[in-house]
């Protein structure tokens, strides 16, 4: 070996050594970083799977509750959960809702594909509890919660306590969850509430928007308020349902009570159909205090704060026993000037992003509410590239927000509007057919960075729209849009 070859070899060896040292150092840092995010044995991992924000809201309140009593908690949306994170955790609290027809929320898609289909996950070291949100009016009550429970048990995780199912945001069900956590932590916890900030609104205006329609009447409801309130387009109003005056009077008469203003006020929002038995010697006033409140119903807000009014678009539901609880309260039972108790719920999954890209708005029926709120917001931001695709039955009777839409068209805010009035021609025409007909335009808009927002009925519209989007864009691109927050839905 010549001297120069030896020198080159030594230099190479030194370089290799330096490289090895750098790599070892980087690995060490990574291990250290990993250690820093490792959950300790007593830490809680909270995971939520939420479609319209309620499970997320309860998950965040529970996080606060536990942190207030000194517990260490990490909270994550299920769409960001990794197998490693799940494997690592010793105590997991799940907050999951059920959507569609017994389905998981959209945000759980990736977890179902990548985590729950993984057979070799050993969770025998892990304990867990599930708060499952659902609604008993659906056939598959809390089905996603049930399936998750089965999965965890199959993978040897141990339940801290039995799954708690919440029927349509019932406070009593949520209280049971808090009680179970109190037993678990041996600490007194603050209350967790589905709706937190109740405000008093005044029912200012009520206008039927579809007189002569073959469908149920749809009303524009306007609520005024005296406090400083703010919200984002896409948010939801949670309304405390109330009783008709005649029903309270009939109840008081049946109980042989004199009707007076105090009793009328005390019973305004109480459930008069199901109540606890009166105890011996219990005063009437004390007894009615113990009645449950009526349910909460949710409505998409159709206005933005700059308009200074909360506007809703409510379809009157007819049931076997009269009008629907929430829609009946807003469209008929509450009188003009009446106080409406409600809470504004942030619906981050349907918020707009101020990124000045084109926007495609698709909806039907009362779904117009969420769409017009977004258009008002886009007008505020000066974003003119908007395409509205809206469906109803007949143009003559069901052309909701016709004047407003025409005004926006004249102002250049809506360069593209397509209507699908299903009953105006022999062949049925729905919004999904418009998408099909205009697939070239859709691809062009998506290429230009457009986002798609869908609002209205899940079964009659949103599922078909999704199928057509899949056909036009393909599963991969639609999933990518979802991940980027460019495919958002407020469907019910
Ligand atoms: C995120 C979101 C946004 C929404 N936005 C709007 C909107 O902008 N506009 C709008 O009009 N609606 C909207 N809705 C729907 C709304 O919240 C109500 O579901 C709707 O008004 C019907 O409620 P109701 O109380 O009037 O009728 P309900 O009293 O709930 O009755 C509805 C139906 O359920 C049946 N039913 C009632 N109780 C039971 C029971 N215990 N078991 C079996 N069946 C039962 C009734 O017979 C009836 O057919 C939205 C829903 C969600 C989740
Ligand atoms: C379109 C739609 C479909 C639903 N399907 C079901 C269902 O199949 N089973 C059930 O128990 N609850 C069902 N629900 C009720 C929701 O689970 C319930 O409203 C829950 O509180 C929503 O929580 P989230 O906002 O976290 O998604 C459905 C609700 C909507 C709006």
UniProtKB/TrEMBL annotation:
Stretch forming the signal peptide: none
EC number of this enzyme: 1.6.2.4
Entry's transmembrane regions: 6-28
InterPro entries the UniProt entry points to: FAD-bd_FR_type, Flavdoxin-like, Flavodoxin/NO_synth, Flavoprot_Pyr_Nucl_cyt_Rdtase, Flavoprotein-like_sf, FNR_nucleotide-bd, OxRdtase_FAD/NAD-bd, Riboflavin_synthase-like_b-brl
Keywords from the named record: Electron transport, Flavoprotein, FMN, Membrane, Transmembrane, Transmembrane helix, Transport
Domain FAD-binding FR-type: 196-353
Domain Flavodoxin-like: 44-182
CDD domains in the record: SiR_like1
Listed Pfam families: Flavodoxin_1, NAD_binding_1
Gene3D superfamilies in UniProt: 3.40.50.360, Nucleotide-binding domain of ferredoxin-NADP reductase (FNR) module
Domain of life: Bacteria
An example molecular function term from Gene Ontology annotations: flavin adenine dinucleotide binding
The protein's enzyme class: oxidoreductase
Protein name: NADPH--hemoprotein reductase
Record organism: Acinetobacter terrestris
